[in-house]
Amino acid sequence: MKHLLTISALLISSLAMGQWPSLPYNPDDNADGLIGVVDLQGLLANYGNEFASAVVSEDGESAIVYMGDMAYPPCAVACRNLPGIWELPDIEDLGLVWDEVFTLDSNISTWLKRNPLTMTHSAGIFYSGYGGPHSAGSSNSVADNSRCYCAAKQLPRVEYDYCRSSGNNGAVAMDNLKSCVNAKLQSGWQLLGSSRDAAREDVFIQAFWRWAE
After folding, report:
1. What is the 3-state secondary structure (H, E, C) of the chain?
2. What are phi and psi of 206, to 5 degrees?
3. CA-wise closest residue to 5 among 57, 39, 48, 37
4. Cα separation of 12 and 24, whole Å?
5. Phi first, then psi: what are they for 182, rounded to 5°?
């Protein structure tokens, strides 16, 4: 079965690294800051495949794409084969395509991400139709065709900073370093490690990290 592919999915391979380019579509396939031959090759490799645009959240940090109707195993494989970290959606991911998966005038079902703790021999599925019941549950009929979506989320981004001791003598330098470190900690930064300046052994550097907003 020919998979439906998305330009958004194909050109955000660095999504798996938690780095830019982030959703939606960015043509810089290898994230080197330039649009070159390598980026063009990434697009041409998928020439001739069917196109279906991904639905992207307003904050640009999550996306979902419809892959077609298929059995559960091929659906899972289709999601894994997309570049980056794509997987079957959970019920919250379906919020981006709720008008497509929730219906009152027909019976449809949509595959959900399987919970290995509670669905040892079954798959997750969302049922909707004819006024109810509309419910998420499990299904042992994994060979039946249901709507297949793949979802992706932007991994948390990390930012870094550092404090460097400064001053004309050791005492002043350490006081300046402590003041900087305390200010960073109060702002939510986490200690990452310390080192000495390569040029001056009496100068210390304290590194920090935190989740970027």
Report:
1. CCCCECHHHHCCHHHHHCCCCCCCCCCCCCCCCCCCHHHHHHHHCCCCCCECCCEECCCCCEEEEEEEEECHHHHHHHHHHCCCCEECCCCCHHHHHHHHHCCCCCCEEEEECCCCCCCCCCEEEEEECCCCCCEEEEECCCCCCEEEEEEEECCCCEEEEEEECCCCCHHHHHHHHHHHHHHHHHCCCEEEEEEECCCCCCCEEEEEEEECC
2. -115, 120
3. 48
4. 8
5. -60, -40
Domains belonging to the chain, first-starting first, are 7-153 (3.10.100.10), 158-211 (no CATH)
**Which position has the token pair 């305390």?**
182
Residue 163 identity: C
Of 160 and 199, more confident: 160
Q: C-alpha dihedral over 190, 192, 193, 197, to 10 degrees?
A: -90
In this structure, what token pair is assigned to residue 187?
């702002």
* Beta strand 86-87 pairing with 146-153: antiparallel
CA 189 to chain CA mean position, Å: 23
Residue with tokens 């005492």: 171
With beta carbons less than 8 A apart as the criterion, state whether 51 and 6 touch.
yes
CA–CA separation, 2 and 21 (whole Å): 27
The one-letter amino acid code at 191 reads: L
| Contact indicator for 100, 91 with CB cutoff of 8 Å | no
Q: What tens digit of pLDDT does each residue of 10-69 get? A: 333 333 333 333 444 566 667 777 777 776 776 666 566 555 567 777 777 788 999 999
